[in-house]
Amino acid sequence: MIIENKNVKIKNISYPKHVAIIMDGNRRWAKKNGKLKFLGHQEGVKTVKKIVSFSIKKNIKILTLYAFSSENWNRERSEIKFLMKLFEEVLKKETVNLKKKNIRLKIIGNKKELNINLQNEINKTEHETKNNNGLLLNIAVNYGGRWDIITGVKKIAAKVYKGLLNPKEINENTLSKYICLSDNLPIDLVIRTGGEYRISNFLTWQIVYSELYFTKILWPDFNEKNFTKALTIFSNRERRFGGNCIKFKN
How many structural domains compose the chain? Predict the structure, then answer.
């Protein structure tokens, strides 16, 4: 686990290939600045654009963002409605920019529970960017790590039931093939903004050996300097993966 250190010296570093971010603090940012919480989410979208551009600049291969968890349905109905509409509008407006910047968009999560208009917009944007070979941008919407694992287990059970898979052959690699991001590079670094020190059901299986970085900075205030600091601290970590020490190399 990595906790923010204000005294870290920024230097030239090798960057991780896959970074995942829990974007926390939009509502608290709005309250702190005397604004409606909806405006906090809009500011959060602006930060997403900045961080995506920075990731491209630093040649990060994959960026995975936690936008809406399966537990977020417990929020006020008006806020959920706003978030879904905001997400739909952002997709409509940003598809052209995604294509221009050679970004491939992939939405992970239980998309079947989203409204049909949003589902259609997601399918359209994914289709129009599928041949892009620059940054892979994963957005987790209605996603939960436990849901992900259970869904994978159900797929494996169906294979066993049909006689297509021998239960004795099931191992970690088997399950890894049936969950989200199965075709992605491993997640090197998980960043959480907002001051909380938990992963909140985010990629529970996938981040078992990822480095974790926590900062008190609220997501709308998170910038390139803050991102660089997280990457710098990561580059100085010694990763063991349960065995010998391994210094990160790009």
Answer: 1
